[in-house]
Amino acid sequence: MSTTSIKQVAQHAGVSVGTVSNVLNRPEVVAATTRQKVQAAIRELGFVRNESARALRSGRSRTVGLVVLDVANPFFTDVARGAEAVADEQGSVVSLCNSGDDPERERRHLERLEEQRVQGLLVTPVDATSPRLDQLVERGMRVVLVDRGPAGDDRCSVAVDDVEGGRLAATHLAEQGHRRIAFVGGPAGIRQVADRLEGATKAAADADVALRVLETPSLTVTAGRAAGERIAELPASQRPTGVTCANDLLALGVLQEMTRRGLRVPQDVAIVGYDDIDYAAAAAVPLSSVRQPRDLLGRTAAELLFEEINDPEAHEHRQVVFEPELAVRESSIHRRRRRSNG
Ligand code: RIB
């Protein structure tokens, strides 16, 4: 690791320490010839700036924290990619933390990120409220809620209308003629799941179709397979012929279990997921799914955060809500084979 100091770079380039600092932090204020001389000295001496020392002096790092529910879920890695692109444009890095749907683990992450003096936080909270997060906001931490609707006017939020998303999925199944529909998702305490179920329940009532709720312990493929097992074991006369899932990982698990048991998708059981992650379209039976603008969610949340970081006086908190849309694919549409002309 380079131990060259900024003073040595200044001496080597024949300029002041302040000029070297300007080249590093505000290159636009330094004349091109001087800037090139300093950059040559940095290369020749192998100087590496000490970000920890800079953060200690300024009291603030160049890092934003991103705390998500499940880093194994491609939904959140897509969101993180959008947020990281904006942070990179701002000269910052993203510290990604996984709460694992555990409020206590979320609290520990929030404490450590505060200790690291991060510039701000992007958080998908586990619970509807987080006392630790509220305390951070009260202490002046900039926070944007990601994939979560408005929670007070003291912070920004970015989300998708999940009630509408749940309605879209169930209405699609009812319009395909399904009279017995299942909603697969849980734990019910997760706000996204509750909102999606609310939308599906409304759609089922409006279409006068039966809705069976199968709550799951998590939003994973494994939980989807277990729910698929419960569906497959129902007597055919009671078995739902349409299944709407709270996310794509669950839907992929249900799809896998139906296929393993010889039940045809969509002929015997139609399936709709939620998120429209890349694996949805790539599934063995391409999955219909309620699309969330994942990259845009991450970008928008990060843009709101840096707007507040860079100009807190001018910043006004905003609650951004995107509309979901339904991507219809083979898992819910029974396309009859074209009759050959012969
Ligand atoms: O974390 C559970 C789900 O909530 C994700 O799959 C995504 O849909 C998010 O909104």
Structure description:
This protein has 342 residues and is of the alpha/beta class. The chain folds into three domains: 6-49, 434 Repressor (Amino-terminal Domain) (Orthogonal Bundle), CATH 1.10.260; 60-160 and 294-323, Rossmann fold; 162-292 and 326-337, 3-Layer(aba) Sandwich (Rossmann fold), CATH 3.40.50. It contains 13 helices and twelve strands. The chain has helices spanning 6-13, 17-25, 32-45, 51-58, 74-89, 103-115, 131-138, 162-175, 191-207, 221-232, 248-260, 278-282, 294-310; strands at 63-68, 93-98, 120-123, 143-146, 156-160, 180-185, 210-215, 242-245, 270-275, 288-291, 319-322, 325-327. Strands 2-1-3-4-5-11 form a six-stranded parallel beta sheet, with helices on both faces. It has a six-stranded mixed beta sheet with strand order 7-6-8-9-10-12, with helices on both faces. Helix 1 packs across helix 3 (32-45) and helix 10 crosses helix 11. The termini are far apart. The model has no long low-confidence stretch (mean pLDDT 93). Bound molecules: alpha-D-ribofuranose (RIB). Alpha-D-ribofuranose is lined by residues 69-70, 73, 75, 147, 192, 219, 247, 274-275.
